[in-house]
Amino acid sequence: xxxxxxxxxxYLKNTFVPDRIIRSLCSKVLLFIGCDTMKPExxxxxxxxxxxxxxxxxxxxxxxxxxxxVMSKQLLRCGTSIGANIxxxxxxxxxxxFVSKVYIALKECSETAYWLELLLETDYLNKNQxxxxxxxxxxxxKMMQATTRTMTAGKQL
Length: 157
Fold this sequence. Notes:
mainly alpha, 2 domains, three-stranded antiparallel β-sheet, about 70% helix, disordered N terminus
């Protein structure tokens, strides 16, 4: 268990841990979640949250303007779930837990693409509305596929 000792030094079970090791661990964690070297707008967390906001707006549009309630509710659930699972993955307790949460987000992303396609084919969304949302969905899907591929390289789940 980590704790602060005197003079803000870290101790692990009463063993002093040098500052350089702490800085090294912190930088690795920041790189892992994409906070250190990447611009925030290039991270999956940022993109999934912005996507969720767009999905909420599409849901409002579909229910208020088009009076469509069933497919739009499904889109709302899976489209906002992507970001929620990504946020949850940041607090994973293990590598397997992290990969599991990203896989769940990946599945939700695939489901979102399905509902978007269905809304297009049933004329609830026009081609421009669909294409914009679908492109963002596929971009996030590729990012999550790359993440899961990297995290599971050499390991079988």
